[in-house]
Amino acid sequence: MDKNNISIQLYTTRHFKPFEPVLDFFFETGIRNIELFGLESIDIDHFQQMMDSSNISSKSTHVSFEALENSQSIIEKATKLNIKHVIVPAPPARKNAEFKNTFDMNEQEWTTFGKDLSKYVKEFEDEGLTLGYHNHSYEFVALPSGKLPIECMMEHDENLKFEIDLGWTIAGGADPKIWIEKYSNKIIACHLKDFFDKEKDMLDHGNQSAVGDGFINWGELLDSISKTKCELFILEHDDPKDYKEYTKRSLDNLGKL
Question: Given CA atoms 104, 133, 44, 124 in this order, what sign does their dihedral have?
Answer without folding.
Answer: negative
